[in-house]
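Give me the fold.
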Amino acid sequence: MNDSPKDQPESSSTERRRAFKLRTYGPDPEEIEKKRQLRRKQQQTDQYKKVKSGSLRVVVLTVLVAAAALFAVYSQVALRAQIQKQMPTELLGNWRSKDARFEGRQLEIRIDSITFVLSDGESDQYRVRAVRTKPAERGQLFAVESVDRDGFESAHIFLYSKAFGGTLQLQNRPDVVWWRSP
């Protein structure tokens, strides 16, 4: 191969000219200005990256604080709902409805069971597993987790009010009011 200047790419001849100008005339003012601008852009980019990473830290910190606040609120709400293993005393007793559709029916609530007595004398009995109590707008809300005779789990939700000596409403029949039998 021949290493003559004509065989070499044009870029190497450009580099040689620059080197010659640099030795002869000193640094090119335009080149110096271009390098300064590049350095400024690099510094601005570095500052932007610092600000961006700082912003990310602020966002992460904000999310963590918000999560902690939500956890605190949730904990307070969860603490208000009390869990018991047996029925509260205000629900104990025999309950009847004055509604004609439920004539002859009765709701018997014992410390460890709920029995729905039908008008023909048959009954459905549930063993109480847990009772969750929570204040409600019109009284006290009771969510009763129970198991029937066949082992099937169920949930019964009652709204108890102290009005008129104590009334009870089932969530699935809020239009029917149950009264404690004497």
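The chain has a mean pLDDT of 81.
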